Every structure is written in C-alpha cells, then in structure tokens.
Amino acid sequence: MNRCLMGGVLACALAAAIGCSQPTSRPAPARTAAPTPAEAPAPHAPASSALTSSAEAAAAPRGAPPLEARVSYDPRETFAPLTLPQPVNAYRSADGTPGPAYWQNRADYTLRASIDTATHVLAASEVIAYTNNSPSALDCLWIQLDQNIYRDDSRGRFAGGRTPTAFTEGFVLESVEIERQGRTVRADTLVSDTRLQIRLDGALAPHGGKLNVRIRYHYAIPGAFGGRTAHAPSRNGEIYDVAQWYPRMAVFDDLRGWDTLPYIGSEFYLEYGDFDYYVTVPWDMLVAGSGELENPQQVLTAAQRARLAQARGSDRTVLIRTAEEIGAAESRPVTQGTLTWHYRMRNTRDVAFSASRAFIWDAARIQLPEGRRSLAMSFYPVESAGADGWVRTTEYLRDAVQNFSRRWAPYPYPAAVAVAGPVDGMEYPAMVFDGVPDAGKFLFWLTAHEIGHSWFPMMVGFNERRDQWMDEGFNTFIDVYESDDFNGGVFGPKRDSEYSPGGGNPVDEILPLLTNAAAPIMLTRAEQVTETYRHSLDYFKSALGLVLLREQILGTERFDWAFRKFIRDWTSRHPSPSDFFRAMESAAGEDLSWFWREWYFNNWTLDVAVEAATPVDGDWRKGALIGIVNRDPMVMPVVIEVGFADGSRRRITLPAETWIKAARADLKIDATLPVTSVTVDPDHRLPDRDRSNNVWKAAPTP
Ligand SMILES: [Zn+2]
C-alpha cells in the first residue's frame, strides 16, 4: 500500500531491484480513540463468583438453537501436545536458552573502500578474520555475495516473478586469498549466484581454528533500482546509501551447518564480530557510518568537533553542519583530494554507511540506563529540512532508543544514525536509511521502526532470511509502545501499513487475514510470503501476537520479565523460532502450545459466544448459570461482564483452559439479583470473528 514503508522497503527494495513499480503515495492513517482500560473495575460488583465445569452445570437453556451445534472447535486438537520444529540438545536447552555447549563462529572484518564518484564504483580490500568455534572441522567456507542479486542472471531476478529493468555486474572479485600461519595462498573458489565457496587446502580445525580470508573486489553501486542500497542525486549532490558492500561470511550453525540460502529478496543472517572500516571519498563529502568515528581530527573541522562535543551533552538537537554550510569550503578540513573516514564497531553483525556532500548533520545525546550515553545523529539534504521533516529525526531516534532501552534492553552501540537518501526505510546496525520526503507522523513511525531493528535482528540475531516474522514482528511490537509513549502519545496509537493499516482496532483489522484460506501461516519461509501478505502477516499478525500474549494471556509483569530475559540470553546470538517459544513458556511459566499452534502454526479464528444466563433451579438467589461457547479452533482467555438487575456489573476472566475439555462452558456464579446481560470481551481486546453473539440481554419484563 505504500512504497517501501518500514521493512516494506525490503520486499520493496527487492521489488525495485527487479524492476517492479509500486505506488509512491504515503498513507494518512486515521487516529482512533484509545480503548478503555481492561482493568477498570465494575461498580457495585456483587459478592464472589464461582465457576462450575460443564459436567456439573445445568443443561443448555431453551430457546435459540444451541450454538454448540455449530462449533468447529475440538479441544483435543487445540490443546494437543505440540512438537516444535527445532530440537533440544546440548546447543539449545529445553528452557529456550543457549545450551551448555552452545557455540557460534566469529567473523572480524577490516575493510578499506573508496568510491569513484564519476563511475559510482566502490573498490575495496577486505580481510575477514574467521574463527571456527564449532565442533566440526571445516573443509570449505561459504561467503555471501549479495551484490550479485543485481546481475541479469541472478536467482533473485526470477524469484520475484517480475521483470527487472536495470542490472549490475555484481561483485567483481579481483583476488581471493587464504592466509594461515603467516602463509597466504590463492583460494580455490566457486561462485554460485550470491554465494562464494572457498574449498580449503586442509580443513579449518574445530574449537577455535582461525584463518584470514583476503578479498580484493569492486562493484558498481546500484542506482535507485537498488532498493536496499542505492545512489541517487539530490539538490546539492549525489547521496550514496551503501550496504551489502563487502563479501560477508555465511553463518555456520548447529541448526543447518552452512546456511547457504541465496539472496533472492529476503534479508540477512550474519555472524558477529568487530568491524574496522575505512571509507575514502572526495574531500567535500560527509560519511555517516555504523559505529564510532575514529578520526574526527582528520575529517571534521574544529567547529564541527566542538559542536559534536556540545551535542554529547545536550538533550536538544545541535546542528553539526548547517544548511548554509553545505558547499562552503570552510565546512571541510581540506579543500581538495580525498579524505578517509575511519569507523569502528564492535560486536555487530554488519555495518553500512552513507556518503554525500549534500548533508545537513545534527545530533543529540541519548541517555541510557545506568548513566550510559549514546549519540543520536541525522544526516539529510536541504530538501528534507521542512518544519515537520528531518529536523525532528534526531529527536525521534533519541526517544525511541531511550524507550526501547528502558522497556526491553539497553542499547549497546555508541551512536544511532538516520540518513535521508534514496533508500526509503531500511535498517542496518545502529544505522537506518529513510526517504528524503518523509515527514510528519510517518517519519516518526519510520524512524522508530528502523532503529528498532537494532534490537531485532541486530542485537538478537534472528535469521531474517528464513523468519521474517521474527525481526519485523518483534520490532513492530516494540514500536506499538513507543508510539503510545512518545510525547504523551501525540503520534499514537501506531496505525500504519505495518500495524492496523485501516486505522481501526487491530483485533478487528486482523480478521481478514485470519479468515483468508489462502493466507500463509507465520512459520512460512520468508521468501514464500508474497507482497499481498508480507505486512499483514510478518509485521502485523506477528506483532499483534505479542500484544495478545503480553496484554491478554500472560499480563505485562510476566511477559516483560520473560521477554527481557529472552533478549538478554540471545543478544549477539542466533535464536531459532523454537528457542523463542520455549523461552517464553519457561520464563513466564505457562504452557502456551495452544497459542503457538493457533497463531503461529495456523491462521485459526476465534469466536466466543454467550448463549444465555439462567437462574439455578429457577431462583436467582441460588445463583446464575451462564453458557459460553468457544465456536472456532482458537482459544483465548476471555473477560466476560455480567450485568445485574440493579445496574451493577461484575467482570470475570475465564482462562483458556475453560474450554480444555469441551466447547461449551457453563459458568455458575453467585448472584442475588437477576442477571440482565452478559458481554463477552467488553473492552474489545480479542480478535473475535463474530461479535453479534458476544452479548446476551434478558428479555424485558412486561
Ligand atoms: Zn522492518
């Protein structure tokens, strides 16, 4: 619905890469009123209530045809034991934590790149210091050559079902060498689509064997068709958004050995390590990169260094380079030749950078838990500097990073950088590429979302190429609360193409997906989720699943503790979907197999209906019986509100196990007065397919 919104950019990035055209209009979602709090106490609640099981309860009331006759719910199916797809073993524990023998290989990178701005060619040398911590000797290495997706013979060209309009040669490898014990030899290589295999002359030893891979290469940076990485002109000069810019180690893990899925459109799965990288560009360009700038004395003026120091102590945004200074010789430390920008980033799975002479640059400090600090920075051309445009991005970045740090896990990186350029909505560690025209609440949402990816999958190293629902959905979930929290909720609630795109209640807006027999399930391989379902499934349904788990199933206290623990346990590691499921069950203390089955393994629907309230033995003073039927395969904990003849109301929360034996539950409650109404899900928090059966009202007395 919108071009490249959020990770939308992704498929979109690919879509663009392979030449699709998509509408460029942006959404103008309607704001809806916040729902009433579920916890609001009902006034004048009568005394205690008790539930009786179906077997003990009275027969169904007379009158309307029994709803039970029309149910498709089978408790033996919904509550059946669930086998998770990834096993428990010495590497991955039953409680969803890394096992006692968990291992992970490591890739440390040194990169020296230069950009020829006349030809848009990036040329570089790379050293990958690779450590094999696995228990297996490795006879070969696999390396990812993601620029090869732009070749006219790439698999990605065909996998999208569209016809690309522009190509590059991909990576041109000038030399590939292996260095071991001080000896460097030419590598025996094979290129297959976006993968490079190096067949080793002698296996790399397990449990800590090391070697260096040395590669010299160049490639043409794609134009606007690049999608996730591109260059394009702006009023004051070309902007380069540079990513997937070096051959990257494929992951060798305990789940599959080498994970060699080619790059045909879905995102990335990468090893962790330290990065030291140098980018050489013409003297008048600024380079914004992932990590910490190591040589400000060489690439910044004294005034810029002083302003940066000021920004490090400022909660308000400080301009490091103003619009007026663009093109001014005195805003650069030299006035000819090239400059080399040196960045370093530790313990990360990737780095990206942007370069342009057209950038305005501003910054403000980020205050983190335990007195730690980071720095929010934005780089954007003058055409982005409107009043509700990029002049506010640093403020959004800063707030989002502080919020996610406070709620979930502290931000570990020295800076959080946003760049306005040709890539509109794409994330890299501590670095995001957003669009030049982005503004207003859309810019807020986009900024929060893209920097939110620094938690998922940059810190928690999900396999995005297979499990898009994890990085996109988990990130969208934390964005929901940032939208509620920012400046008292001025941009909340989050309603955009990722989450409740129609602007209404998310539990209603998810229904078309749940009832669509053609829709894929969450555990579908990422590449197979078509654009039709990508946002509704991998972003929206996945995020709403966590909202339901937090707010309706576990409660915030249990969920938040377990979710934070999961993040902590898997930071800089590679959790599988099963690790997540097990972690939440174990840490929150709940067998959630029914929820995983209905929401993640299936697109099941929920329909809870109230039949009637009747007096016990015809006498309300003996209590009331309320018939509740779970009609569809999905179950959830359900709140019901019972209204009495004196106008008082009482709320009862029914656990999912209410329906563990049968579709129908007859609840016996204490009552002294006639029951006049029963409402299922009175706060409208559940994705109930049919709300026409959620309310029962007593017939008016003549
Ligand atoms: Zn995203």
What do you see in this structure?
This protein is α+β, with helices and mostly antiparallel strands and 702 residues long. The protein has a domain at 8-29 and 101-488: Immunoglobulin-like (Sandwich). Helices cover 22% and strands 29% of the residues. It contains 15 helices and 31 strands. An 8-stranded mixed beta sheet has the order 5-4-8-2-1-14-18-16. The protein is globular and about 95 Å long. The two termini are 54 Å apart. Zinc ion (ZN) binds next to helix 9. Residues 6-7, 449, 453, 472, 475 line the site of zinc ion (ZN).
CATH homologous superfamily identity of the domain at 8-29 and 101-488: tricorn interacting facor f3 domain
Question: How would you describe the shape?
Answer: globular
CATH topology of the domain at 8-29 and 101-488: Immunoglobulin-like
Number of helices: 15
Using the 3D structure, state the CATH architecture of the domain at 8-29 and 101-488: Sandwich
Bound molecules: zinc ion
The stretches of 5 or more residues where confidence is low (pLDDT under 50) are 1-65
